């Protein structure tokens, strides 16, 4: 590996956490801790209020679980809307916006599943009462049909199917998500107004569910209706545009007034407000410049219509920047003085910012960096990285890994290069498949989950 001439650090290193899978509560992500807390409070209040409605229905075995799943569905939907608000104040609740979006993807099937099973469990209740299942499931089935509830369920199922449709464009997917707020409001409102439920009968639960409703609805209003006007934005203009290879762009933006104050490794959302552009499109890009630099550099892989249109940017064109977001930064992991950094393809971008910052931060660390590329011709940042390694304050080992000639990089090869040390953290950035594969490899070799740091850039 290419190495700087600096002497390795001699200061004492913090004691590393014990190796293992780390299944304790401390290893649970902040977002899941929030989910567990909300569901715990919801379940407790439902349990305390169950006696208020048990006398009015055959509570077990169908009605009770159905009502519990109903309030769980509302609680999960509220968390989903909060997770997608794209607010820097809310981001710490989830440990980073990327984790919030990942949590949203995990919770959505659970929320929809809870609602569907809630309805299924009502079928035997209706049948035992001598009613018609059609009144429960089919809009306008009869004068007694639960038309509003069944229409809300159908809308939710159609929305879910479209949200997971791979053929839907990113812009269409974003537009689709503006509809989830009204669906949530209608569905939750109907459950609140229905007579004979735990929510209607028990005031503490009713107060809690209204609180969750307002939180979720407020987050949706902020994100879907008000974001372009009230979210913190920074006005930039294009300084330069450089195409490094067929699918990689370096975009340098100069602040018009105030500039983004960011940490190395974070990302921003970008919008082009030019008059010749239609619609409102926010797209996330990693920052590859140092926080100490005046201009903001974004390194972009052209993978869709929006990114390919960036080649048409003209010098001086206004660009709106929102953020920064993300927790993929060594500042959040100050306790780890040894870092193993692996960037695959355009995933090297956050490490560019980190190394550029290393030249000025006087924060001595021991760093190993791998730049994984499909071939040597697809490594546009190799020369910059080698220069940054020479200028960095920290002691850095750097290696360009050409997969075409050396095969796929494995966690075992990385750990062998770093051995015999075992008090390091691993930072991974690349395609979701690459990151998940490397994460599994490191965990199988005994590295605890809390020492594997990764950012997920899938925003749909």
Number of domains: 3
Query: How many runs of DSSP E, i.e. beta strands?
Result: 12
* Main sheet: strands, sense, barrel: 6 strands, mixed
| Straight-line N-to-C gap | 37 Å
Using only CA atoms, what is the Rg? Answer: 26 Å
Task: Output the structural class.
Answer: alpha/beta
Number of helices: 16
**Can you give the helix content as a percent range?**
40-55%
Main-sheet strand order equals 1-10-9-8-11-12
Order of helices and strands: EHHHHHHHHHHEEEEEHEEHEHEHHEHE
Per DSSP, what share of the residues sits in E-state strands of 2 or more residues?
A: 15-25%
The best one-word shape is elongated
Description:
The chain has 16 helices and twelve strands. With 460 residues, it is an alpha/beta fold. The protein has three domains: 2-16 and 329-454, Rossmann fold; 50-230, no CATH class; 233-325, Translation factors (Elongation Factor Tu (Ef-tu), domain 3, Beta Barrel). A six-stranded mixed beta sheet has the order 1-10-9-8-11-12, with helices on both faces. It has a six-stranded antiparallel beta sheet with strand order 5-4-7-2-3-6, with no helix packed on it. α3 (59-83) packs antiparallel against α8 (180-193) and α8 packs antiparallel against α10 (203-230). The longest helix has 32 residues, at 97-128. The radius of gyration is 26 Å and the shape is elongated. Residues 9-23 have low confidence and may be disordered.
Keywords:
3 domains, 16 helices, elongated, 6-stranded mixed β-sheet, 45% helix, Rossmann fold, Elongation Factor Tu (Ef-tu), domain 3
In short:
By secondary structure, the chain is an alpha/beta fold. 45% of the residues lie in helices and 17% in strands.
């Amino acid at each position: 590996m290419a190495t700087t001439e600096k002497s390795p650090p001699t200061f004492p290193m913090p004691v590393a956490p014990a190796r293992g899978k780390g299944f304790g509560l401390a290893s649970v992500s902040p977002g899941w801790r929030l989910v567990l807390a909300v569901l715990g409070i919801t379940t407790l209040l439902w349990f305390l209020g169950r006696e208020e409605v048990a006398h009015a229905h055959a509570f077990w075995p169908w009605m009770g679980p159905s009502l519990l799943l109903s309030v769980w569905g509302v609680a999960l939907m509220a968390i989903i809307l909060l997770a997608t608000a794209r607010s820097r104040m809310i981001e710490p609740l989830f440990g980073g916006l990327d984790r919030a979006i990942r949590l949203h993807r995990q919770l959505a099937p659970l929320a929809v599943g809870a609602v569907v099973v809630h309805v299924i469990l009502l079928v035997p209740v209706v049948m035992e009462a001598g009613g018609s299942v059609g009144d429960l499931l089919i809009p306008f089935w009869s004068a007694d049909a639960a038309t509003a509830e069944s229409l809300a369920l159908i809308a939710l199922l159609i929305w879910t199917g479209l949200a997971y449709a791979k053929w839907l464009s990113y812009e269409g997917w974003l537009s689709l998500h503006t509809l989830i707020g009204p669906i949530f409001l209608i569905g939750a409102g109907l459950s609140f107004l229905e007579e004979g439920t735990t929510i209607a009968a028990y005031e503490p639960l009713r107060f809690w569910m209204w609180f969750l409703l307002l939180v979720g609805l407020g987050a949706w209003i902020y994100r879907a209706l008000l974001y372009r006007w009230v979210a913190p934005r920074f006005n930039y203009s294009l300084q330069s545009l450089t195409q490094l290879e067929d699918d990689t762009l370096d975009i340098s933006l100069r602040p018009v007034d105030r500039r983004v104050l960011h940490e190395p490794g974070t990302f921003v959302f970008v919008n082009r407000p030019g008059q010749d552009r239609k619609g409102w499109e926010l797209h996330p890009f990693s920052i590859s410049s140092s926080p100490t630099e005046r201009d903001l550099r974004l390194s972009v892989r052209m993978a869709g219509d929006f990114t390919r249109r960036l080649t048409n940017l003209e010098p001086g064109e206004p660009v709106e920047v929102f953020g920064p977001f993300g927790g993929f930064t060594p500042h959040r992991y100050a306790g780890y003085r040894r870092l193993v950094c692996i960037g695959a393809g355009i995933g090297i971008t956050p490490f560019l910012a980190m190394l550029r910052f290393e030249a000025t931060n006087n924060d001595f660390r021991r760093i190993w960096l791998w730049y994984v590329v499909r071939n040597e011709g697809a490594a546009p940042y190799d020369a910059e990285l080698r220069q940054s390694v020479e200028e960095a304050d920290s002691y850095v080992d750097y290696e360009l890994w050409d997969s075409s000639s050396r095969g796929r990089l494995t966690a075992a090869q990385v750990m062998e290069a770093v051995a015999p040390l075992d008090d390091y953290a691993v930072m991974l950035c690349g395609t979701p498949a690459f990151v998940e594969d490397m994460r599994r490899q490191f965990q199988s070799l005994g590295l605890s989950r809390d020492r594997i740091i990764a950012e997920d850039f899938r925003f749909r």
